[in-house]
Here is the input.
Amino acid sequence: MTKLEKKITVISNWFLSRPKTTGVMVFSVFFVILNLSIFFKYQISKENEEHEMVNLLHVVKKNIEQAFKNNYAALITLALSIDDSGEPKNFEKISEELLNKYENIDLLQLVPDGVIKYTYPLKGNEAVINFNILNDSLNREAALKAIKSKTVFFSGPLKLRQGGLGIVGRLPIFKKGKFWGFSAVVLKYDNFIKSTGIANFKSDKYYLQLSKVNPLTRKTEFFLENKSDFSNKKFKEVYLPEGNWKLYVISKNNSDLHEIIPLIILAFLFSLLSGLLTNTLLKRPAELQRLLLAQKTKIEESELLFKSIFEHAGLGIVHTNSSNGKFLYGNDKFCELIGYNHDEIKDLDFMRLTHPEDLPNDLYYLEELRKGNIAQYSLEKRFYHKSGKQVWVRITISRLSVIDQNLVSHIAIIEDISCRKEAEFESLKSKKKINDIIDSIDGVVWEGNLEKPGVSFVSKKSEIILGYTPEEWLNNPLLWRKILHPEDKEWVIAFTDQNAKSLKPIDFEYRLIHKNGNVVWVRDIVSVYHEEENIKKFRGILIDITKSKQFELDLNNSLQLVTEQNKRLLNFSHIVSHNLRSHTSNIESLIDLIEITEEEQERKELMELLKSVSKTLNQTMDNLNQVVSIQTDMNTVLEKLNLNQYIKKTIEVLRHKIIKNDVSIINNVSNETFVKFNPAYLESILLNFFSNAIRYRHPDRKPQIILDSYIENNYIVLEIKDNGIGIDLNKNGDKLFGLYKTFTSYKDSKGVGLFITKNQIDAMKGRVEVESVLDVGSNFKIYFNNATEENLHHR
Amino acid sequence: MQQKKIYIIDDDPIYKLVTKKLIEKSSLFSETKEFSNGSEALNYFENTTDLPDILLLDLEMPEMDGWEFLEEFCSLENKIHKYSSIYIASSSIAVEDKEKSKKYKCVKEFLSKPINMDKLKHIAHKD
Here is the structure.
């Protein structure tokens, strides 16, 4: 653009952007120009008009003067008819000729000394004869003026005596230098007007007027039509001395200015319209111009913004040719990321910088992008820094095809994720380490939550300890419940549920069934974690304690055994001390007595007593021996014995007593009931219970013994029910199976039988229980142990 | 000094016989009675209100042993407002029994069998 063009553009823009100002200016210019042209036109037309009016005036004046000239000729002819004596000759004849000659003359007169003496035609005008015009105020001045000037003088129009309006032309006649009178013509006004052409004058623009100052009133009188005042109108006038008249040409329009006012208004309206139109027309471009400008500013701003974003972004941004992978332009961050400067990167392509392992993936997606199958993709890959070290980046690539149709390019946004990757590797490493550690723990580490059954994590050790892989655990939420030992299932579930609800950490032991069917004793240590609010996690470690449990159970069994034996031993020692002491003290006392007794008879008696004491002592020693043998002989032989056979044998042994006391025995024990027991013990036990049932029979009723047997858990139970005197268990329960504990006054109660019986049963790992009501009967239950060795582990 | 009544409660007939002979020989007591167990003695006391000055009580007895007897006897004493000095004579040398006996107010002393002349003298003088 040249300087001028630029200036024009600036100016036009200035106008375009200011529609109101421009509108006003257009209006003003139009208005001024139009008014000027109107003014000039007005000037010209005014000149034309004046010219026209002057011409017109001249024509009319000429016509009038012509008319006067005709009259003048007539008057002179008439005057010449007067002879020297002052007598008219042939007045009537001449008048007739004249009247014929001049159409517009109505009447001819001769007025000697101002008195009308002759009139032609007389007919109709008799009234004027002898009328002295010099005496008439109306005519006197004009008559005198004519005399004085010695020229024709026209007076009127005036009212004629004979009627109508007329113009009277009078020519003073001098005879021998002496005023004789007048020759006069009377022109009918209408005819006169006609003859001058005034009557026939017709124009759109003008009209004519004729005026004369009334000699009497001294007022100007007008004679033609349209007598309205025209002083404010445009007119031209000319003076007619013959009649002291003034002839006017008057423009019909009031004023010339009136003529141009509509034009000015029109011009004003036109200018206004033009101004408004300009305004309206310019307004749109102005609006557009403004928008354009705003848009331009915006674009400039956003361009600046984008440029600054591009340049100073915290992310690397690079524009790449998709066809050859060459970098077109990269921002500072990108250069910094790969270690090359802006110029160097233009010679590089991304393939050269990408780690070979990551390249195929990148190229695959780029191809997809080029084909237009995808618009964008992101991946994590490694770039080689100029220094050779690897840079982990996350790269997001978008197609960029709009800039140049021929160039398929893409824009890549690159984020340095080396730190994150490193952290990830570290995290993976430490996670692996933790997992290794967890897997190396000699126990199953698990994790679960309150909401869902099952576990969310199980360590690999579960495969070794329980036979189930972590996958099996994760796939079956109910696995744990499934493999709980049937005997533990109920209480373990109840216990864990209760503690889970109250979020209590627990440490407990129970049994699980290994996949191979073995029983595994575990210790489960469960803790509660609050990972997030509302999310409670349980983590536990399941330790195989089968071996230690076995030891514990064995130990417990041993302890129980030892405790039992200890108790028995203590009891035994008490028994020994008590029983032996009672005998020894008796012996001591007896010996004391013997020593102080002098009488022979008495001494003998005391010696007898001493003997019996020693016998009893011996008996006691025997009993104790028996007990000791049971308690010490731990390896008593076990045999499978038919219970019923032994019952029958016992009944046979007691046959005598049974018959003697009329005892009825109801035996409900089946022949197929077998117990593992020592035969001698079984005989002894049965004999003891049967004997007791008979011995402590109720005196008021027929003794009855009912035998029953059944299986309860791992025991075969034999019930021996009698209807004897019963035992007050509250009082004597603890004494029942004690040695030398008797609680009846029966003579043959020794307090030995049940003690030995109990010892025998205990030695066979059985037990004995008793139910009894005083005066109703007793029910002894003998529990024969039927369990296999491995099932001896009970809680 | 007026001699006192001494009764024996024990299930061992030999002991009773020997002790009775010893009491007779000692001439320290006015009267001796013997019972085989606690209930037998208690029945007698309830029926007769004949409470001795001194009771020699064994602990190990059938039907009603020494401890049960003590319970019943103490309440009986309070009921009839007669009181006896009880000496436990047991063959037991268990410390527990000795300690337990101290809980009973009516028990004067815990003696171990055999009861010999010295012990009888001790009882007679002490009471």
